[in-house]
Structures are given as structure tokens and as C-alpha cells.
Specification:
Blueprint lengths: L1 H14 L5 E3 L2 H13 L3 E7 L4 H16 L3 E7 L4 H6 L7 E6 L2 E7 L3 H14 L5
Parallel strand pairs: 1-3, 2-3
Antiparallel strand pairs: 2-4, 4-5
Length: 132
């Protein structure tokens, strides 16, 4: 049994590479959102599942984007690990990406659509003033 647990955590590491931060508790979610608010960062939350083919397909791209768009906080939520929490977000399909500003949803994308994900990131980073 221990081997499968290890496999799962390794699997999640593949999903959460680059600057993507894996959220495993409601507390860590709250902390990250607080941090994003303080730093005036947009948050993208990818509600995903390890068994989901499209999620696996877009995971490396999501990680790549996290290294390009440093003004955005990229989070990953495993819907199976945080079932109750995911239910509160009304997830109908994985992956679902939520774009949050000050903890409030400003946009959403359902499905592993790379061009659409990039388009939404570009649109949202254009709107947010950069404090550099």
C-alpha cells in the first residue's frame, strides 16, 4: 500500500513543477490567497485530478506559464485530495482554471485549452497594473 501513496505524491510533483504550488489543505489555500492579496497578485487555481488525461496534458504547459508570468500566483488543487473544498467551487469537469483577484473569481476556463488559457492570462495581466 505504501508504494501507491509514494506514487501519488510523485505524480503530484509532476503536476506541480515550475512555480506551481500544490494546495493540499484549505488552510494553505487561505494562506496563498492572503499572500496574493498582500502582493497584489492575480491567482490562477487549476482544479485538476491525477487520473485526468487532459490535466496531465496541460500540466507541463501550466508549469511553463508559471515561470513566464511571475506576477501571477499559480496554484494546483487536486479535486480528489480536497473533495469538499472542490465541491464548494462547483467543479463540473477537470481541469477547471479559476482566475482570482483579491480572492474573487474574475474569470474561469473549463478544459485543457492551451490557446484559451494563454489568451486569458495575457488579458488579465494587461488589465493589472504592474508595480515594478
Amino acid at each position: 500500500m505504501q508504494a501507491s501513496i509514494d506514487d501519488d505524491s510523485n505524480h503530484n510533483m509532476e503536476f506541480a513543477s515550475g512555480n506551481v504550488q500544490l494546495i493540499t489543505t484549505k488552510e494553505s489555500w487561505d494562506q496563498k490567497l492572503e499572500q496574493a492579496k498582500r502582493d497584489s497578485k492575480i491567482v490562477i487555481a487549476n482544479f485538476s485530478a491525477t487520473w485526468c488525461g487532459p490535466c496531465k496534458m496541460i500540466a507541463p504547459y501550466y508549469s511553463e506559464l508559471s515561470e513566464k508570468y511571475l506576477s501571477i500566483m499559480f496554484l494546483l488543487v487536486d479535486v480528489d485530495e480536497l473533495t469538499d473544498f472542490s465541491t464548494t467551487w462547483d467543479i463540473k469537469a477537470t481541469p477547471t482554471f479559476f482566475f482570482l483577484k483579491d480572492g474573487i473569481e474574475v474569470d474561469k476556463l473549463v478544459g485543457a485549452n492551451k490557446p484559451e488559457l494563454l489568451k486569458k492570462i495575457v488579458a488579465i495581466t494587461d488589465v493589472v497594473p504592474h508595480n515594478q
